[in-house]
Amino acid sequence: MAKILVTGGLGFIGSHTVVELINAGYEPVIVDNLSNSNPKILDQLGKIIGRKPAFYKLDLCSQADITELHDKEPELAGIIHFAASKAVGESVKEPLKYYQNNFFSLINLLEAYKGKKLNFVFSSSCTVYGQPDELPVTEKAPIKTATSPYGNTKQVSEEILRDVVASGSSNKIISLRYFNPVGAHSSALIGELPIGVPQNLVPFITQTAIGKRQKLTVFGDDYNTPDGSNVRDYIHVVDLAKAHVAALKYMESGVDFGGYDVFNIGTGRGSSVLEVIHAFEKTTGVKLNYEIGPRRGGDVEQVWGDVTKAAGQLHWKTELDVDAMMLTAWNWEKYIKDNPL
Ligand code: NAD
User: Fold this and answer.
1) 14 lines ligand 1 (CB under 6 A)
2) Using H for helix, E for strand and C for coil, what is the string for the chain?
3) Is 99 designated active site?
4) Residue 60 Cβ < 6 Å to ligand 1
5) Has residue 1 got a pLDDT over 90?
6) Whether pLDDT at 147 is above 90
7) What is the pLDDT of residues 155-196, one digit of tens each?
8) CA of 264 to the centre of ligand 1 (A)
9) How far is the CA of 269 from the centre of ligand 1 (A)?
10) What separation in Å is there between the alpha carbon of 323 and the centre of ligand 1?
11) Which pLDDT value is given to residue 176?
C-alpha cells in the first residue's frame, strides 16, 4: 500500500482525510505535535478504521524531529501537509508565531524530502482571494493583499511551492484552496475540536445549542446579500477529505499538468449565516439562542467558489448538503458531551 504522510493528521481536516485515505487503499502515516489536537483522536480513528494508524508526535519546525521523521519514513508515495496554525484573529496578534510555524514546517518538509519523487498536497484557503471582484471566484481571480498574517502565509506558501516546482523539483505539487469546512464524520467519532472559544460559525452554533455558550451573535445583517448576513461556501469535511484523495490520484495518473496547480475546493454554492442557522434548527429540531450584532472587522461580505476546474480535472465534486453538515456537526457535539475526550 502506498504510504502517505499526513501532517496535522490528528486535526479537524487531517483526521477525516486519514479515514478517506484508508477507504481508498492508502496507508496514512500521521505526524502531529498536538499543538491544536487531542491525542485521543488517534483512538477514535482506530474505532473507525479498525486499527490505529501509524503516528509520530513530532514538531515539523524542529530540525531534529524532521531528521527523525525522514530516518523513520524515508520512502513515501505522497505528503498531505495540513499542519499549520490557522486562527486568523490570533495571527493578527501574534504574526511571528504564524510566520514561524507555517513557513518553517513547510520549508523543513520540502527540504527533507527534496529529490524524492512524491506527490504533495498543500492546504491552502479561499482567504487568498479576499473579497473577490467577481462571484463565483475562479482560480484565475487575482490574489489580493492578504488581510491577515495567516492569509499571507497561505499566499506566500503557494508562491514557495510554485518556485520549488519551477526550480525542477522531482515533487509534483497541488494546492487545494478550501472554502469553509464544517460537519463531522457520520460515525460521530471524529469532528472539529476547537480549543477555547470557537472562531468559526458551526462549532459556535453547536456549542450554543448544547449549552456551552449562552448566545450566538450574527455579525451584521446589513451586508449587500439576500438576507443581509455574510455568505460563505460551506463544504462538508468528508467531501473535502475526498478531494485530497482525488488530488493524489490525479498526480499518480501521470497527466501532464506542469508539476504545480491550484484548485478551488467548495460546493460552488453560497449559504448565508442565517440560512445555516435555520438549517441547523430545521435538521436538529433544536432552537438556537442567537442575536444580530454589529459587523465584525475583517469579514469579507460574501464568497463562494467556482469548482468546475476540480470537477473537470480531479473528477471530484461534493455530495453532502448543508443539512448533512449541520446534522453531523450536531451528532459530534452530542457525542463529546457524553464521551468527553
Ligand atoms: P487543525 O488545527 O485542526 O489541524 C492542524 C493540525 O496540525 C493540528 O492537529 C496541530 O496540532 C498540527 N500542527 C500544527 N503545527 C504543527 C507543527 N509545527 N508540527 C506538527 N503538527 C503541527 O486545523 P484544520 O482545520 O484541520 O486545518 C488544516 C489545514 O487546513 C491548515 O493548514 C489550515 O490552515 C487549512 N485550512 C483550514 C480551514 C478551516 O476552516 N478549518 C480553511 C482553509 C484552510
Assistant:
1) yes
2) CCEEEEECCCCHHHHHHHHHHHHCCCEEEEEECCCCCCCHHHHHHHHHHCCCCEEEECCCCCHHHHHHHHHHCCCCCEEEECCCCCCHHHHHHCHHHHHHHHHHHHHHHHHHCCCCCCEEEEEEEHHHHCCCCCCCECCCCCCCCCCCHHHHHHHHHHHHHHHHHHCCCCCEEEEEEECEEECCCCCCCCCCCCCCCCCCHHHHHHHHHHCCCCCEEEECCCCCCCCCCCEECEEEHHHHHHHHHHHHHHHHCCCCCCCEEEEEECCCCCEEHHHHHHHHHHHHCCCCCEEEECCCCCCCCECCECCHHHHHHHCCCCCCCHHHHHHHHHHHHHHHHHCCC
3) no
4) yes
5) no
6) no
7) 999 999 999 999 999 999 999 999 999 999 999 999 999 989
8) 18
9) 24
10) 25
11) 98
Q: Which of 98, 129, 150, 223 is catalytic?
A: 150
Q: Does 131 score more than 90 pLDDT?
A: no
Domains of the chain and any CATH numbers? 3-184+234-266 (3.40.50.720)
Protein residue with least CA distance to atom 44, ligand 1: 125
